[in-house]
Each structure stands twice: as C-alpha cells, then as structure tokens.
Design goal:
- The structure holds two protein chains of two kinds.
- Chain A has 15 helices and 17 strands.
- Chain A is globular, with a radius of gyration of 22 Å.
- In chain B, helix 1 crosses helix 3 and helix 2 packs across helix 3.
- The chains are: A alpha/beta, B alpha+beta.
- The interface between A and B is medium-sized, with 18 and 15 residues.
- The complex binds pyridoxal-5'-phosphate.
Chain lengths: ~400, ~140
C-alpha cells in the first residue's frame, strides 16, 4: 500500500470513476451531498456486480462443481480482504451481515443471551436508532438497564459523565464512532480502554467511520466493529460484523438454518465454526464479493489526502454557512468529519431540502434516525450536507449559492 | 365551477412556469397566504405526523359541503395544502370521496403525495377522503 500513501490526490480522476456523478437532474448538474446516507459506486464495483452475475453465479460452500468453488473462493477472498483492511487477526472474525443494523441486532441477540438481570448497557446520546432500539428490545427481554452518556451543546460526548456511568455492572458499551448527524468523531480508543478497565465489552458503530478514517481493530482493541457496505462504495444489502474470536466463540448463534450447522439430527444439532456459525442461509454472495472490491478500491486510495480534502470541503461549507444570518450549525465538535448539519431560523429543513433538490443538490433533511438527538437540540430536524472525497470546492460554491437562494425565497 | 374545472384551472396556472424554482416560488407564495387552522384546533387528534413535516387538518361539514382548514410547519407543504383545499372545499362529501386529484400529477408535484415522501400530505388526503366518506354515509342515513 506504499504507493497509495504517496499517490497525489486528483479529484477529477476520482470523479471519473463514479458514473452516477455524471448526470443532470432538473436540468442541473447533480451535486451529491447525501453521502452519509449512502455513497455512490465506482465503476470497478459496478463491473464486479456485472461480472459476478454474468459468469460466476453459483451457491457457495456446498458445491462440488467448478462455478460453486469459484464463487466460494471469491467470497472467502473478500472476507480476507476485509480482514486485512481492518487488521483483524483472523478472517474468521469477519462475519457477513446485511449491514450495520443487522450486525448490531446480531450482537444484541447473541451477546445479549450471555447477560442477566441487572446488567447494564451503555450508549451515548448521539446514537443512530439502530444503536438504540436493539438494546431497548434486549433490555426488555432480559431485564437489563440501558444507560445513556450525555453530550454537550457542541455535540461532543461529556467524558466525565461517561466515566461516571461506567461501573462493574456495565457489560457492553455500544458507541457510534462518527455521528451521522453531527459529524462528531468520538475518542473511541480511550473509551474502549476505560470500558475494558471495568470488564465491559465494546461495540463500535463504524457506519460513518470506515469511509473516512483508517480503521485498525487491533489498535482500537474493540470487541466488535460494524459497518455497512453501501456507505463505503459497495453494494447495498451487505455489511460486516467484526468480533474478537474469543467473544464470538462465547456467543450462541443468532439465526438457525443452512450453512451455520455442523451436524443436524432431530434430537440435537451442533453448530458450525466461525464465521459460518453466524451466517445462516445463503448469504448475499454478489454483495460480499463486491464489498471486497470496494475495500480494495478504498485501500488503493490515499486516505490521508482524502481526509484532508474532506475536511477542507466541510470547513469551507461550514464557514460560508456561518456567514448567513439565521443559520445555526448543529454539531460543532472540535473533532469532526465531513458532515455539515444546519437549521435556518423560522424555516423548516424540509423546505430548504426541497428547494436544494430542485437546484440539483441532493442533501438529507429530517431527524437522520437520531430523534433523541433532535430532542436534545430542541429542533425538528436539520439539513445535512455530507461530503465524500469525490466532491469538489466548486460544488460547495454552487451549494452555498443554492442555500442562499432558497433562504431568500422562503423568508 | 365544478371540481374538474377547478383542477383544470390550477393546471393552466402552472403552465406559465417552465422552471422548477419558479413553480416552487409560486407554491411558497400560496403557502404564505394559506388561511390556517384556528390555533385552538391544532390539537393532537388533528395532527398528522409525517417523517419530515407535520400537518394539522380540521374538517367541518356545513350545509352539506366539506370545509377543510389545515396547517403545516413546512411552507411548501402548506402551499400544496392550499391547492388541495382550493379544489376540495365547498364540494359535497360524495364528490370529495370519489374525486381523482389528478392535477397534482399534471403539475408535477406527485412526489409530494408519494407514499415514500412521508411529509404527511398523503395521509392528509386520505383523511380528507375518509372524513368525506363518513359525512356522506351520515347524510344518506
Ligand atoms: C451511524 C449509523 N449507524 C447505523 C446506521 C444504519 O446502517 P444501515 O441502515 O446500513 O444498517 C447508519 C446509517 O444510516 C448510521 O449512519
């Protein structure tokens, strides 16, 4: 990967690899600023999907024939690619799921089986619904207690309060790495260390971090790390749960079915080894293979340069928006990524979003699946522009002009 | 003017706008002018919770005609409400219940009434029709 570190950053070249960016909507050049919701796909990933269904389609792990073995090989190769990228110890620690939501539900069910009445789970006030609701369901099922670490008005976790909530009843800390609504980067490495000191395991919701930061699960020392393929340039319907081998081994299976068994009789069934124990049924084979392709694509990029570029875009957008009267930035953490959420005095986010859309700019408006966070800021929602490395300064300029025009019409 | 003529009138009004932004500027004007619901009637039972914006709908039947008032926290939603009310108000319950509101499609605003949009408008239209249906059943009793 040495050449990817020195590779010069050329946004034009990068954009050329993303066909979806080359289109006009309502007669305007598309400006895609909804990367937090999902990313566009590079040609290599689209080609891989096409290639898989044109040539390699077969069921895996169960065929003696040529195509099945080839598909199995590619699927397992993808698992290896992801393992190497995350710096996991073994490829068995990489479980294919449907995505972040599915991964968290898996842990909530299976790890949850190990917990008992009175145990506590600690999350933060900036979690996505998918890192809230599965724990509420588990807490109800097992009579556990869900604790929520508060944030300050800038949208940063209050570390002292987090520390106070940690105790020897805390069995799991499940925390968002980067907030999809605010862009806040949580100091997860420190949080993991603190959680481990009271014997708690830690799940990191990496849905918004893998596409922006270099993730090293062994350096972080997290017990679980989850992400969704579609947010990291891969296809929808597939994602990953990384788990430490020992922790995964201690957990009962999630769903029963084919592939996850070792031997089935009507009296007793024994389960397969990792990772298959957690992968019941035919997986999203094309998805897994193409996620591998997306990760290869990502690892061929210069991540340092990407981070610099994305930070530049976000700072530029935020500084410009800040000059508008009545605009309030939601999420002003010191450590933040390329998300700019804002509201405009007396104007509903939905109205801004609709007018931006008609000017060719795709943003997201609403609560971003973080309703408790909206309640904290006492707002109905925000307008969120989230940038990827294929976005440009010129696009930000057009966006800013479009915001200005929208405000002037709506005022 | 019957309900079909009212729909046609709106379609004609919109033909002068060939640019999306002009169209929305007009809708926003309508939203600002919308005679809104009496604040005491903005109660929870009149609230239609959308994922994006919220809508309040009050239904009265006076002299055999439907009289809707409504409000929303989003101005574009209010503008579209204004158009819907212009078409549906002062019509008989039977007419409201059975009319196909094709003008929304014809002026290119169907996205706002799509089930995926979740801005409360589709639920509002459904509730308007349901209220009309109830009123028509009462009147034939
Ligand atoms: C931080 C975070 N967690 C979880 C999710 C859920 O991801 P998915 O819908 O792909 O399962 C998202 C995506 O919206 C997210 O941004």
């Amino acid at each position: 990967m040495a050449d990817s570190i020195t590779k010069p950053f050329n946004v034009r070249e990068i954009r050329e690899q993303f066909p979806a960016l080359r289109q006009t909507i309502y007669g305007k050049n598309l400006i895609y600023f909804d990367n937090g919701a999902t990313s566009q796909k590079p040609q290599v990933v689209i080609d891989a999907i096409n290639r898989y269904y044109s040539k390699d389609n077969a069921n895996i792990h169960r065929g003696v024939h040529y195509m099945s073995q080839k598909a199995t090989g590619e699927f397992e190769e993808a698992r290896k690619t992801i393992q190497v990228y995350l710096n996991a110890k073994k490829s068995e620690e990489i479980i294919f799921t449907k995505g972040t939501t599915d991964s968290i539900n898996l842990v909530a069910f299976s790890f949850g089986e190990l917990l008992s009445s009175g145990d506590e789970i600690l999350i933060s006030a900036m979690e996505h619904h998918s890192n809230i609701v599965p724990w509420q369901m588990l807490c109800e099922r097992k009579n556990l207690k869900l604790r929520v670490a508060p944030i300050n008005s800038k949208g940063e976790l209050i570390i002292d309060e987090f520390d106070k909530l940690l105790n020897n009843k805390t069995k799991l800390v499940s925390i968002i790495h980067i907030s999809n609504t605010l862009g806040t980067i949580n100091p997860v490495k420190d949080l993991i260390k603190k959680a481990h000191s009271v014997g708690a395991k830690v799940l990191i919701d990496g849905a918004q971090s893998i596409q922006h930061l270099k993730i090293d699960v062994r350096d972080l020392d997290c017990d679980f790390y989850t992400f969704s393929s579609h947010k990291v340039f891969g296809p929808t319907g597939i994602g990953v749960l990384y788990g430490k081998e020992a922790v995964l081994d201690s957990m009962p299976p999630y769903q029963g079915g084919g592939d996850m068994i070792s031997k089935v009789t009507f009296e007793r069934t024994t389960y397969n080894e990792l990772p298959h124990k957690f992968e019941a049924g035919t997986p999203h084979i094309a998805g897994g293979i193409c996620l591998g392709e997306a990760i290869r694509f990502l690892s061929s990029q210069n991540l340092n340069a990407i981070q610099k570029h994305e930070k530049y875009l976000a700072d530029y957008a935020q500084d410009m928006l800040d000059t508008f009267e009545g605009v309030r930035i939601i999420g002003e953490a010191k450590e933040k990524t390329s998300v700019v959420s804002f509201i405009v005095n007396k104007i509903h986010p939905f109205d801004i979003g609709t007018l931006l859309d008609k000017q060719g700019v795709a943003v997201r408006t609403g609560h971003h699946c973080t309703q408790p966070l909206m309640d904290f800021f006492k707002i109905p929602g925000t307008v969120r522009a989230s940038f990827a490395f294929y976005n440009t300064k010129e696009e930000i300029e057009t966006f800013i002009a479009a915001v200005e025009k929208s405000i002037s019409i709506l005022k | 003017m019957n309900i079909e003529e009212k729909q046609q009138e709106i379609i004609d009004e919109f033909t002068i706008y060939d640019d999306w932004m002009e169209k929305y500027e007009y809708i926003i004007e309508l939203g600002k002018e919308l005679e809104t619901i009496d604040p005491t009637k903005k109660t929870d039972d009149r609230l239609i919770e959308g994922c994006q914006s919220r809508v309040w709908l009050n239904t009265d039947v006076q002299e055999g005609k439907m009289r809707f008032t409504a409000d929303s926290d989003a101005i574009i939603t209010k503008g579209i409400i204004g158009l819907l009310i212009r078409v549906l108000n002062n019509e008989t319950p039977e007419t409201v219940a059975k009319t196909d509101l094709h003008f929304i499609n014809d002026i290119g605003l169907q996205e706002h009434l799509s089930p995926t949009r979740a801005n409360g408008l589709l639920s509002m239209v459904n509730r308007m029709k349901m209220d009309a249906l109830k009123a028509s059943m009462k009147s034939t009793k």
